[in-house]
Specification:
The chain has helices at residues 3-8, 12-35, 41-62, 67-91, 106-115, 144-154, and strands spanning 95-102, 120-127, 130-140, 159-163. By secondary structure, it is α+β, with helices and mostly antiparallel strands. It has a 4-stranded antiparallel sheet, with helices on one face. The chain starts with a helix and ends in a 16-residue tail after the last strand.
Amino acid sequence: MTLDVLFGSAWGPLVIFGLRIVDVSLATVRMLLAVRGHKRLVPFIGFFEVLIWILAVGNAVKFLDSPLHLLGYAGGYATGTAVGLWIEEKLALGVSALRVMSAHGGVEIAEALRERGFGVTEFPAQGRDGRMEVVYAVLRRRHLPLALAQVNAWDPDAFVMIEEPRAIQRGWMFDLRRK
């Protein structure tokens, strides 16, 4: 069976839909990895992304008179964006900066995070409503749920900020060998 027969059949819109999911998912992951500086992986992903895209768009254009083919193309794009974001979230590559402002649990939060192997810096601060503790940690994104669970266990009302650092140099996290 040639590709023209496959794409011209009733299965064509579904095949285009599936191809778009794959290529847009790859594009989403590629862009997010590029922002995070994964220079070796990004071109490899881009190669396959464009290869799949050419196949999908070429066949969608062949069947412009078919509303189902157009819906397959557009629906695959939308679904692929959601799938790409889901994949990137599950990969959880990179690091996050966690900043916690707690009026009454900062010391306990810092100790709980240290007990789980995180490097933590804490310091006193003055907030709108009085004294508070600021707890700061840089950790791998995949460990963020564990750290947030500790914060919520000690102070569910703490103000929490999560940021993505662009670059980090030195520090306990980047020692040659950690136990």
